[in-house]
Automatic annotation (TrEMBL):
Protein name as catalogued: acetyl-CoA carboxytransferase
Enzyme class, UniProt record, top EC level: transferase
Stored Pfam families: ACCA
Annotated catalysed reactions: N(6)-carboxybiotinyl-L-lysyl-[protein] + acetyl-CoA = N(6)-biotinyl-L-lysyl-[protein] + malonyl-CoA
Record keywords: ATP-binding, Fatty acid biosynthesis, Fatty acid metabolism, Ligase, Lipid biosynthesis, Lipid metabolism, Nucleotide-binding, Transferase
Source species, domain of life: Bacteria
Amino acid sequence: METVRAARASDKLSAHYLREHLFSDFVELHGDRQGADDPAIVGGIGLFAGQPVTVITTSRGYKLEERLAKHFGQPEPAGYRKAARLVKDAARFKRPVLLFIDTAGAFPGKEAEYAGQGQAIAQCLTDIGQAETPIISVIFGEGGSGGALALACGDELWMMENSMYSVLSPEGFASILWKDASRAAEAAELLGLTPESLLKGQVIEGVIKQEGSKSAQCREIARVLEEELAKLKKLPVSSLLNRRYERFRKF
């Protein structure tokens, strides 16, 4: 449960901070090309280590009005359609994709269900899984349910030390299993949601150290991403896709 609290901490790295300190010349792109633009997903094009990349982040917002509009970082269907569109564009122009995830899950509101939340997540999984370009995801806070999985289905998934990734929240797990949300700490133990547990289970590729200042943490993220992108870019497209397919088959 300590990991859960750290993943939810208000003073941790934000998506805005990551975009500002990892990328230069970032240009945000809007819209899902179906008439909507979900602010909970912020994505665009920027330069990383001198190369153009597509950047996609979940965004919780700062002021209350902004947080409400973004559902505290829980994307609606338009957000997943936007992410899928940006990934397909990246593949078309041979740009690597870097995704940064901090979400409790997809927005569970009635309007999101009416708009096709499940279908949007499924299509996002499919489009990212088939994109012919290197794709790396990083969880830097919460990684909840299919809302996080939809953005974590590329070639590699890394987690910050103080982050979590699970099928649902400990509170939700406890409510379903025991009808008692107060047993969340017990549920957190059973879920195996820590980076260490997930690395042991080969669900993720590695854990990024979270030491020192936020700028130091960004430098560590950049170091890992540079090394991993260099490896992935050497692979032929067919090998990249086969490797991605086998990665998920083992689950």
